[in-house]
Design a protein that fits this description.
The chain has ten helices and 17 strands. With 415 residues, it is α+β, with helices and mostly antiparallel strands. It folds into two domains: 1-182, no CATH class; 193-398, no CATH class.
């Protein structure tokens, strides 16, 4: 079995939003109460409580405390399970020791089995904007309107998670248990392959001669983010003005994140529809970040190579196609034609010139062809290709405001 998450944007009334925020604060208090009880148990008896003991303790606290009764019973048990998993990760050496949660950072509730109901599913919109709208009821909270842009098996939902983002947006995540075989399996012969060289100036250079310019959304929004960060530092911690400024800052970061992920998924869908094999360089991103200058580190973070690689791999593998990671060592300095190494090549050199055979080609294009060669998918002759940009992908709409790049929210009406 494989667990897959389907996330949808949720809309609700102001009253329901206030109830959700109140319940998040209550769940945070329950988490801290379980943490305190665990610490006392360890100090007295030198033992930790099991998962069932923590779940039962959460129910007992809910019975004795009227404030905790605002939570659904299974949500309260899920809070206990969350604390148990955090403690187990600490004992396994995978995370830090669980500590007291802050209310403004506890942002999600989980309904494991019951307490939710999806109804009134209907189609809205026209043409390409045609989507489905549904009504979700969460016990003890209220009703939410969901925009369902993807089809998912409603009968196989195992958990429902409602999450309040720092920007004020609300998303609902459905966890679905699916068979591992539901991922597409390759049914035909692998015919063509593409090598992808990742970079800062050009985000991706393909072995067929196409390239995608790096939009650098973080760098373009940096002035606005710095202004908001300075304003936040002058506010009193957890005051109303501090919370408002923090929300504005979170919106800026979410605009950048949404634009970047949207671009990555559109690129992945484009490549997966044209090629059967994806050849990527196995980059040590952390090593690149640690060894670079301050500006280079910023641009590496902005390019987000790890996320781009994960998205490209997902788009190929869900269609049953092959992904081949190859070593990235000297991929930019190796000659595609003869295999010689140009040790004098620097980051400023944008054209590769082989000192052994005289072969000259664009630096990034040569690197993508070298990756294909290392994977064994290169034709015997040098492909006669010239660099040309990928046609503009239908990404999220952007607009400038105060020196920042912001995402235009899609029009949505309730009714």
């Amino acid at each position: 079995m494989r667990v897959r998450a389907y996330r949808f944007r949720a809309y609700c009334s102001n009253t329901t939003a206030r109830v959700l925020k109140t319940q998040l604060e209550v769940a945070c208090k329950l988490y801290n109460a379980l943490l305190h009880a665990e610490q006392e148990e360890y100090e007295k008896n030198k033992r930790t409580m099991s998962k069932n003991e923590l779940r039962q303790l959460a129910l007992d606290l809910r019975k004795r405390n009227t404030e905790f009764q605002a939570l659904h019973s299974q949500v309260a048990q899920q809070v206990a399970e969350r604390f148990y998993q955090a403690r187990e990760r600490f004992l396994e050496g995978l995370a830090n020791k669980p500590k007291k949660k802050k209310p403004h950072r506890y942002l999600s509730l989980v309904y494991p089995q019951s307490g939710w109901k999806l109804s009134d599913v209907r189609e809205v919109g026209l043409g390409k904007n045609k989507k489905r709208r549904a009504r979700l009821y969460l016990s003890k909270i209220g009703f939410f309107t969901l925009v369902i842009h993807r089809v998912f098996p409603e009968s196989q939902v195992s958990q429902v998670c409602v999450k309040l983002y720092p920007s004020g947006r609300i998303h609902v995540i459905f966890l679905v248990e699916e068979e591992a075989e539901t991922l597409g399996q390759s049914s035909g012969e692998l015919k063509n392959a593409v090598g992808v060289d990742l970079g800062i100036t050009r985000l991706a250079t393909l072995s067929d001669g196409r390239y995608l310019e790096n939009p650098k959304p973080l760098e373009r929004s940096l002035e606005r983010i710095r202004m908001l960060q300075r304003s936040l530092s002058r506010k009193r911690f957890l005051s109303n003005n501090w919370l408002k400024t923090k929300t504005r800052l979170a919106k800026e970061h979410e605009h950048i994140k949404d634009f970047r992920r949207d671009l990555f998924f559109k690129l992945g869908a484009l490549l997966a529809g044209e090629y059967d094999v994806l050849v990527l360089e196995d980059l040590d991103v952390q090593g690149l970040i640690q060894s670079g200058t301050k500006k280079r580190r910023l641009r590496l973070h902005d390019s987000s190579f790890s996320e781009l690689r994960a998205v490209l791999e997902w788009e190929f593998r869900k269609r049953g196609k092959l992904v081949l990671p190859v070593p990235s060592y000297n991929s930019s300095r190796e000659c595609f034609l003869c295999g010689g190494i140009n040790q004098s090549l620097t980051l400023e050199d944008r054209v590769f010139l082989c000192p052994h055979c005289g072969f000259a080609l664009d630096r990034d294009l040569n690197a993508s062809l070298v990756l294909l060669k290392r994977a064994g998918w290169v034709p015997p002759s040098v492909p006669a290709v010239e660099l040309h940009p990928i046609p503009p992908l239908p990404t999220l709409g952007l607009r400038r405001q105060g020196g920042a790049v912001r995402q235009e929210a899609p029009a949505f009406r309730r009714g």
